[in-house]
Write a structure and sequence with these properties.
Layout lengths: L2 E8 L16 H13 L5 E3 L8 E10 L6 H9 L6 E9 L9 E12 L12 E3 L5 H8 L4 E4 L14 E14 L2 E10 L6 H13 L5 H9 L16 E8 L10
Parallel strand pairs: 3-10, 5-6
Antiparallel strand pairs: 1-3, 1-4, 2-3, 5-9, 5-10, 7-8, 8-9
């Protein structure tokens, strides 16, 4: 029973998130339906993480074990032939038995895209948040430094399961700019061991608030040091600007090809 690692990309605009939900179109549901249609199997699937409704993924990793053996590239192409245009399997590889896309991940990287414009931005509106700019990037970077490290991030999100810990390790936070034609964008990139629900969007909301001069680095430091304080003031940035970027693995050993 070969195990595969699928790397999946999707535009989340028309999905109600990753996780299967009754009566709703989700990225996992669409991928599962394609696997069932192709293989006549309904295998269990693991994923590196969940994305919110409207959020996007560039490197979502899915683990799936099938009864029948497939050459990985043939499996990728056959699934893509059955998937709609807003989702695709961009890579497929054999992995050792027991591979779990969530538990085996070393860390995950998310990126939030902000377009600074005093007015509407029709072109990037589905994949970014338009805010009045410019933003004070130096102030945002100063505030972002307080998010790095192992902290209780209860002010920025909630645990995936009831009673779960809200402690996470953030390895790095970067604030960069990208310009393309008439578009000026700010990119907030965070790499962490794992994320709480809403954590990345709360990070973006807090940092943009600082960039607009409505808060300072000390406020962000306070949220980290006293996570129960001022939580009502952390506003989630819209899901449309959130991009699951990549997932990193360590022992991710390639299995021997099936005979």
């Amino acid at each position: 029973m070969p195990t595969y690692r699928l790397t999946v990309e999707y535009d989340g605009t028309d999905f109600s998130g990753w996780q299967v939900q009754p009566g709703r179109r989700t990225a996992m549901g669409v991928l599962r339906d394609a696997i069932v249609d192709l293989t006549s199997e309904t295998p269990a699937m693991t994923a590196a993480g969940r994305t919110d409704a409207g959020a996007h993924a560039h490197g979502q990793v899915v683990g799936v074990t099938l009864d029948a053996a497939w050459e990985p590239e043939r499996l990728r192409m056959a699934l893509n032939a059955r998937l709609p245009q807003d989702i695709a399997v961009v890579a497929s590889a054999l992995r050792a038995a027991g591979f779990d896309a969530r538990r085996d991940a070393l860390d995950r990287t998310y990126r939030y895209i902000v377009v600074c414009r005093d007015g509407r931005a029709p072109v990037p509106r589905r994949h970014s948040w338009t805010v009045r700019g410019p933003l004070d990037l130096a102030a945002m970077r100063q505030a972002a430094a307080h998010l790095v490290g192992r902290h209780d991030f209860a002010a920025f999100g909630r645990a995936p399961s009831a009673g779960g810990t809200t402690v996470r390790t953030v390895h790095e936070v970067s604030i960069d700019t990208a310009a393309s034609g008439a578009l000026d964008a700010v990119l907030i990139t965070v790499r962490a061991d794992a994320f709480l629900r809403g954590m990345m969007r709360a990070f973006a909301g807090a940092l943009i608030r600082v960039g607009q001069g409505r808060a300072d680095a000390a406020w962000v430091r306070g949220l980290v040091e006293l996570p129960a304080a001022d939580v009502q003031h952390v506003t989630l940035a819209p899901a449309r600007g959130l991009h699951q970027w990549s997932v990193r693995y360590g022992w991710d050993v390639i299995a021997e090809p099936a005979a």
